[in-house]
Amino acid sequence: MSGLEEDAWASPTLGLSPLSRVRLDELLQELLDRVGEVVASRERLRSLLDAVVTIGSGLELRGVLTRIVEAACAVVGARYGALGVVGPDRTLVEFITHGIPPELHARIGDLPHGRGVLGLLIEDPRPLRLPDITKHPRSYGFPSYHPPMHSFLGTPILIRDQVFGNLYLAEKHDAAEFTQDDEEIAVALAAAAAVAIENARLYAIAHRRERWLAATAEITTVLLGQVDRTNALHLVARRAREVAEAQLVLVLLADEETGRLTVEVVDGPAPDLAGAVVPLAGTAFAQAVTGAEHVVVDDLGKAAPWPAPVSTGPALITPLAAADTLHGVLVVAHPAGTASRPEDLPMLHTFAGQAALALERARAQDEREQLLVLEDRERIARDLHDVVIQRLFATGLQLQTAAQLASRPDLTQRISGAVDDLDTTIRDIRTAIFELRTPAVAALRTEIRDLVAEAAQSLGFRPVLRLDGPIDSAVPDEIRPDLLAVIREALSNTARHARATTVLVGVAAANGQVTVTVTDDGVGTGDSEPRGGLVNLRERAQRYGGDFTVRPADPTGTEVVWRVPT
Predict the structure, then answer these.
(1) Where in the numbering of this chain does the GAF domain appear (predicted)?
(2) Which is the CATH superfamily of the domain at 41-205?
(3) Which candidate, 47, 43, 94, places its Cα nearest to that of 70?
(4) What does the alpha-carbon distance between residue 510 and residue 529 come to, in Å, rounded to a whole number?
C-alpha cells in the first residue's frame, strides 16, 4: 500500500470540509430531535390510549368522572385538573377536582358556579388555551386558600351535541404553558370521555329502571292480597324515595269538594308535614291534578303555602290516577344542588299508576266490607220490624184487653204501665231500626247525642233524648248545622234561665219535615215575646220556610218547637 492510500484511510473527515462537517452535525442533531419527538409522540399516544382504556373501565358515573380528570392531568402533564358538570340553568352543578388535597379543598369552601373564565366554555363550547389565566379580562381571581394557577387549558365534553360539562386543566409541568399538542390530546380525551360518560349514564338509567320495575312489581304483589291503604301508601313512599334517591317523598290525597290536598304520608326529614292541608288553586299541584300530567318544580317549598318550612331541590309531581279517578299526587323531591332526572318520569308515571290502583283496590275493599255490614244490619232491622215489634204489639193489645177485664184499680194501673213500657220499647226499637238502615257515613244522630250529653254539665243532669224517624237520611246536609244550633241554643237557654229539673229533647223526621222539641219543667217564660237567642232560632226556621214557637208546658215549664220542611 502506498503512502497516499494510508493517508486517505487515516483521515477522520472523509474528505469533508469544515463547513460540511458543521452542516452534517446539524442534520444529525435534527434527526435525533425528530426521533425524540416521534418517541415522545408515541409515548403520549400510548398514554392517551391507556387513559381511554382507564376511563372506560367502569360504569359508575362518579368513578368515570374522577378517572377522566386524573387521566387528563397525566396525559397533558397538568398539576391540577377539574371536571365541571353543567346543569340545565347553565351553571356548574358538580365540580370534581384532582391535585388539591381534601383538607385544602374543604378550606376553599363552595364550588365555583361557572362564571369568569370557567364560564367562557359554557357560553362558547370550544377549546380554550391561556398562558396566564390571571391576566384574562374575565378573570375574577381565586378564593382564599386556592393554590396559584397560571397556564390553563379547557375543553368541553359534548354528548350528542349537548354540553355535559367542561374539562379544566392548569399549571403545566416543566413548561410555562400548554402546547397545541396538549390541546389536541385534551380534545381527543374529551371525545373518549363523552362516550364513557354516556355509557355510564345509560347504565345508571337502566339500573334505575330495573329498580323502578322491581318496586312496581312489589306494589303489584300487594294488590293481590288484602290492601290496607295506609300501609300501601307508606310502602309507595318508601320505595319511591329509595329508587329515586330522593330527599323527600310525599303522598297527597285530593278532596274535590273543598279543593284542597292533604298530606297523607311523608317519607323523609319532614315529619311535621303529615296531615298538612294545602290549597289546590294557584299552586304547582293544580296542573298535575287538573291536567293529569307531570310537573317539575325547582323547589318544593315554593310550590305551595306549606304550614312548616320546606326546602328541597328539584321535585317531580305526578298524579295518582286510576280508571279516570284522581286520588291525589305523588311528590318526589331531590336535595338542593342536584339536577332533576327527566328520564325517571316514564317509570315514575308507571309506579304512580300502580300506587293509584292500590288506593282504588283499598277503597273497593272498604266498600265491599261496608256493604256486608249494611246487609247484616238490614237483615237485623227487618227481623226486628217483622217479628219483634209485631209480637210486642200483640202483647200490648192483650194487656189492654186484660186491663178492661180487671176489676181492681191497682191491677188496671199496673197493666196500663206495662202497656206504656211496651210503647216506649217499640219506639226505641224503631229508632234502632232507623239507625241500622242508615249508611255508616251518616252521623247526625251521633252528633245530637253528643250535643245532649254535653248539656248535662251545664244543666246538672242529663236530658232525656227521643229520636223518631229516619233522621240521618231525611234531613238534608244544609239543614243539619241549623238543627244542631237550635238544640244547642234551646238547652243553653234552659240551663241559664229555667231552673229546670228535667228536660226532654225530641227530634222527629216524618211527613216531609223535621221537628225539634225541647221541653222543660222550669219556671217558664211568661207572656213575653221571644228575644235574644230565641229570635235567632225563629230566623233559622224562616230561612227554610218553617216555623218556630215558644209556649208554656203542662203543668209547668216551657216547650220550644222548631219545625222546617225537608
Answers:
(1) 60-207, 228-369
(2) GAF domain (3.30.450.40)
(3) 47
(4) 29
Query: Which letter does DSSP use for residue 441 in this model?
Result: T
DSSP string, 158-170: EETTEEEEEEEEE
- Whether the CB-CB separation of 470 and 445 falls below 8 Å is answered with no
- Whole-angstrom distance, CA of residue 436 vs CA of residue 440: 9
Q: How far apart are CA 157 and CA 71, in angstroms?
A: 14
Whether domain 442-565 has CATH 3.30.565.10? yes
**What residues contact 342, with CB distance under 8 A and at least 6 apart?**
296
Q: How many CB atoms lie within 10 A of CB 246?
A: 24
DSSP state of 548: E
Q: Are 563 and 546 in contact (CB under 8 A)?
A: yes
Helices (H), 175-304: 180-223, 229-244, 285-291
Helices 180-223 and 345-383 sit at what angle, rounded to 10 degrees? 10
What are 443's strand-pairing partners? none
pLDDT digits (tens, 9 = 90+) for 63-118: 888 888 888 888 888 899 988 888 776 777 788 888 888 888 778 777 677 677 88
Distance CA 430, CA 436 (A): 10
Could you give the CA distance from residue 380 to residue 361 in angstroms, rounded to a whole number? 29
pLDDT given for residue 137 in this prediction: 81
User: 156 — phi, psi (to 5°)?
Assistant: -75, 155
CB atoms within 10 A of CB 369: 10
Mean pLDDT over all residues of the chain?
A: 78
Question: Which of these, 137, 296, 322, 313, lies nearest to 232 by C-alpha position?
Answer: 322
Q: Between residues 464 and 529, which one has the greater pLDDT?
A: 464
Which residue in 552, 555, 454, 462 sits closest to 502, CA to CA? 462
Comparing 225-358 with 442-565, is the CATH topology the same?
no
Q: What is the dihedral of CA 207, 213, 219, 221, to 10 degrees?
A: -120
- Contact by Cβ (8 Å): 177, 131: yes
Name the residue among 480, 482, 384 with its Cα closest to residue 434: 384
State how far the alpha carbon of 26 is from the alpha carbons of 63, 97, 109, in Å.
49, 45, 55
Q: Which residues pair with 563 in a beta bridge?
A: 515, 547
CA–CA separation, 340 vs 298, rounded Å? Answer: 9
Q: Which three cell numbers stand for residue 339?
A: 339536577
Q: H-helix or E-strand containing 19?
A: helix 18-55
Alpha helices in 56-101 (DSSP H): 61-76
Structural contact between residues 150 and 127, judged by C-beta atoms closer than 8 angstroms: no
* Region label for 324, one of left (φ > 0), alpha (ψ between -120 and 50) or beta (otherwise): left
Domain ranges of the chain: 3-38, 41-205, 225-358, 442-565
The answer to whether the CB of 259 falls within 8 A of the CB of 280 is yes
Half-sphere exposure of 243 (CA within 13 A, CB side): 26
Strand partners, 261: 254, 278
| Angle in degrees, CA 144, 147, 153, rounded to 5 | 120
Task: Give residue 49's pLDDT band: very low, low, confident or very high (50, 70, 90).
Answer: low
Class of domain 225-358: alpha beta
